[in-house]
Design goal:
The complex is a heterodimer.
Chain A (H helix, E strand, L loop, with lengths): L2 E5 L2 E4 L5 E8 L5 E7 L5 E9 L2 E4 L6 E6 L2 E6 L8 E8 L10 E3 L3 E5 L1
Parallel strand pairs in A: 2-11
Antiparallel strand pairs in A: 1-3, 3-8, 4-5, 4-9, 5-6, 7-8, 9-10, 9-11
Chain B lengths: L2 E3 L4 E5 L4 E3 L2 E3 L6 E6 L5 E7 L5 E3 L5 E5 L4 E6 L8 E9 L2 E4 L3 E6 L1
Parallel strand pairs in B: 2-12
Antiparallel strand pairs in B: 1-4, 3-9, 5-6, 5-10, 7-8, 8-9, 10-11, 10-12
Classes of the chains: A mainly beta, B mainly beta.
Chain lengths: ~120, ~110
């Protein structure tokens, strides 16, 4: 079966510090990968998605970047955090090859980021 | 532009009563529609999806949803609510690798 991991679970960082959040998926190959941010426990904002190694699409220009160094690894980064970067960050994967599973995204447990 | 609307910020229902969480969509072509549930400080859990076929889709935890093309709706339903169903519910539509989410509806089931 497939599983998705995110770490850390919680993070408190000062303004201006760097950020690295990691997401890994097990049990599947060549997944589509996504980063979302959820502010104030409500709406989800798609930040980045990737359909393959080294392929990143950005949805919203901002203080963040994403990378996919390996097939099942997706990293969200920032060089200098802003107060507005606080939120709940969710990674998701979607199978690109399993019949009957197309277009269903499965989410990780999330990372709660607080920027002070 | 494609969009998904959840007109109710919160739905309150008594335990044992039926519940409905509303969702309407505006998409081109044949929509793929989804429902997810989120418990506090957790990721989203997939409940069910409509791709094609039977308009009534059954999902996890006794939930079901009815696709209505003429009303462009995909309401989530459950015949008998449980206190443990209290959570945040999201409707979503697929659009070229991406999911478009509604704003979410908080369901509160009182004992």
């Amino acid at each position: 079966s497939q599983t998705i991991h995110q770490w850390p679970a919680t993070l408190v960082q000062p303004v201006g510090s760097p950020l690295s959040l990691e997401c890994t998926v097990e049990g599947t190959s060549n997944p589509n990968l996504y980063w979302y941010r959820q502010a104030a426990g409500r709406g989800l904002q798609l930040l980045f998605y990737s359909v393959g190694i080294g392929q990143i699409s950005s949805e919203v220009p901002q203080n963040l970047s994403a990378s996919r160094p390996q097939d099942r690894q997706f990293i969200l980064s920032s060089k200098k955090l802003l107060l507005s970067d606080s939120g709940f960050y969710l990674c998701a994967w979607e199978s690109s090859i399993i019949a009957g599973e197309a277009d269903t995204q499965y989410f990780g447990p999330g990372t709660r980021l607080t920027v002070l | 532009a494609q969009s998904v609307a959840q007109p109710e910020d919160q739905v309150n229902v008594a335990e044992g009563n039926p519940l409905t969480v509303k969702c309407t969509y505006s998409v081109s072509g044949n929509p793929y529609l989804f429902w997810y549930v989120q418990y506090p400080n957790r990721g989203l859990q997939f409940l069910l999806k409509y791709i094609t076929g039977d308009n009534l889709v059954k999902g996890s935890y006794g939930f079901e949803a009815e696709f209505n093309k003429s009303q462009t709706s995909f309401h989530l339903k459950k015949p008998s609510a449980l206190v443990s169903d209290s959570a945040l519910y999201f409707c979503a539509s697929d659009s070229s690798y991406k999911l478009i989410f509604g704003s979410g509806t908080r369901l509160l089931v009182r004992p």
